[in-house]
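SAMPLE LOG
Freezer: B-3
Tube label: C17
Construct: single chain, 120 aa
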Amino acid sequence: MDPFVEEKLSELGLERFIPVFEENEIDRETFLLLDDETMKELIKPVGPRLKLKKELQSLVKDEQAWFAPAIGGHDSSGFLENRLRNVRRRDSHKASKPPTVMVPKSPLVSTVDLDLPEGE
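STRUCTURE (predicted):
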């Protein structure tokens, strides 16, 4: 039995349907793909079926939030894609600035000539 499916059914108080889901080889992927017709076959009573439907809608919505469709001219607007885009933007700004070297002032040295290679 898929642990994800077992956990979700247990959270909803639908443990008695675990054997049905196991018999029908419902794993995480197929669990998230369940439609009304399939749920009717798996769970006959209306009440438990509606609980499952509500949970599935919430799970699918959460999954889609991570990889949302494009908006505003960007490739994607999902959380992970936005985060990656921000990191890339930050890194590109860092790469365009020359390295800064802090040298303490010393009465013995009037000038310091540092010849650093690019990117260090």
